[in-house]
Amino acid sequence: MKIVVLVKQVPDSGAERSLRADDNTVDRATANNVINEMDEYAIEEALRLKEAHGGEVVILTMGPDKATDSIRKALSMGPDAAVHVVDDALHGSCAIATSKVLAAALAQQNADLIIAGAESTDGRVQVLPHMLAERLGIAALTGARKLTVDGSTLTVERQTDEGYEVVTASTPAVVSVWDTINDPRYPSFKGIMAAKKKPVQTLSLADLGVAASEVGLDGATSAVLEHGKRPPRTGGNTVEDSGDGGVKLVEFLATEKFV
Amino acid sequence: MARVERFLPSEEAADLLELVGDLADNELAPQVAGFEERAEFPREVLRTLGRAGLLGLPYPVEYGGGGQPYEVYLQVLEELARRWLAVAEAVSVHTLSAFPTYAFGTDEQKKRHLPDMLGGELLGAYCLSEPQGGSDAASLTTKATRDGDTYTITGTKAWITHARVADFYNVFCRTGGPGPKGISCVLVDAGTPGLEPQVAERTMGLRSSPVAQVVLDGVRVPAERLVGPEGGGFTIAMSALDSGRLGIAACAVGLAQAALDHASEYAKGRTQFGKPIIEHQGLGFLLADMATQVSAARALTLAAARLRDAGRPFGIEAAKAKLFATDTAMRVTTDAVQVLGGYGYVSEYPVERFMREAKVLQIVEGTNQIQRMVIARSLSRE
Fold it and tell me: Per the database record, which ranges form the Electron transfer flavoprotein alpha/beta-subunit N-terminal domain (chain A) (predicted)?
């Protein structure tokens, strides 16, 4: 089974993040860039499937030159190879344009299974897996908390607010995963050393047959017009208990729709 | 946590230290307080470190090791000790427990045992001290008698780290007459009939690391488990101790760094008389002295490690590093308690634990009096 895992490099969500003053895109130059957290669960799931069923795991990343760091880190966990789509014209691409580029890259891979994190911690739009499935004409099993493979049948427990749904599809398909699905492994020191020697194929827009005008800020279907700093935290309310503290607390919770 | 500026010899060493930092922050730091409180050995944590390849770093890749110089291995230990001393000490003891086989074993013994010892799933122990003597190791009384192809070992070993949890034990025992030349090293598997680890000691600190006596009552071991020549055990023990002292020195640097981290963080946030206490010169200078001593201990330890890596004599420098780094850890952890004042004396903050843990480092792997003796003797020989 050939599995492609989508990996995105994002600014560390645990640190201060900002948008660029000039074009309102995510400031990746000053950020501490890491693998999108949810993607580590996607990699882990792919590696477990490979260990159980054999096959190959390939990382696919679209991002600037320095995304190489995250690709090497992803490879140190155990995948076999990586494809890096890198092109200056991609800067500022929206989700729709990104899906066009990734779908073109995936079309070259003939994967049985494509696994993605359910969302990235920078964009958080959660639509890319669906868009890719649509463009590739295959099923999308999204928001998985459990994935099992039996021959060419995929079964997913799809996490919802109330519980979960069981959905099935045949390969090839796109599956997106939440952080409830597994416990990602740490790379080993030997894995880190081996990752340096694994093949990383670099593709440009021209290699994928996608025109520069269809992507980037100019080709974007949505735009961020302006941004500002998050307002400072306000003081909060203090409830003085003069016999009616409990009532006041419940009233507050009711106005916030907690009760 | 403050970043320690490190001068590393390779890019792979930098990658390794980054991996260790991730593991230490995510797996060690959140768990240390609970395990120390419960005096519970963190076997799973060590498995995680083993799978990451951290239980055989300074041994060649061909035997399953990490192929790293001591200079790098010790900085890994330091970062582990900065979050959890007992785990760093476990790594140090385990790493040492593979040393007799690696340095003195036959090719066959190395091929047979090292891949398992370094593979990350097993833990080793090192049995030299006895109830009546630790510093005077040459007078040990545990006896091994050879009968055909079998040694039968009887005696009691004391202060054995990993007793009860180890998978194999290096047992130093008397195969010949009195004195250092009558001692041999024998590798004994856990579970061998007659090998009986006792109840763990109730210790002042380092409580998640089990230390106990190991009673050997007629333990029968195949003669092929003799490591090095018969009568060569004392040489092995002393040689291993030189490397072990570097490990303890690195643990001490990590512990002292942890105390410095916590004390300076606290002193920046705690306000008295209208300003953070770090801006009061009395405490600012105390912290400056702590920071300087930690850097000096690290530099001395790594200088000794680099001599070892270059194949030069390093035993005396290792003794100096062990002495200085562990005395520094004692002083810096004590000062950290002082910086936190009353809060330093209660167990909500880790610095009182650091102070309790530092003490044992002045005792193990040769007391600091033994280190001074070793250093003084080297001066009298010059």
Answer: 23-212
